[in-house]
Amino acid sequence: MSLNEICRLYRKGQKLRRQAKELSNASLARKFECSERTIAKIANRMPVSVPEDEQRIIRACISERDRMKSEAAELSMHRLGKQYGLSKSSIASHLEYLAEREVAA
User: Fold this and answer.
1) Residue 104: pLDDT above 90?
2) Cα-trace Rg, the chain
3) 24-62: per-residue pLDDT in tens?
4) Across 13-95, where does the E strand assignment appear?
5) What is the 8-class DSSP label of residue 51?
């Protein structure tokens, strides 16, 4: 796999981390106008005073967040470097190079 492709995978991981953050318990609590504790209870299938359809949506969001976090972990700089026999600094240097090329274009 080329260094460009590895950097593309790393960027995908970064995007997944950002998206997963949008589904944090705090973010879900704001969106559904309840407390983070209520979100945690819903995740653990404990009784709460939130409509069942909203609970299903919240659980689906939590499941998606966990899936994204897991995939993002596989696309971390450390794991990609280890998988493809590269140092983190070589990946970081190439990311900087690519960023400079994008700015110049």
Assistant:
1) no
2) 18
3) 999 999 999 999 999 999 999 999 999 999 999 999 999
4) none
5) -
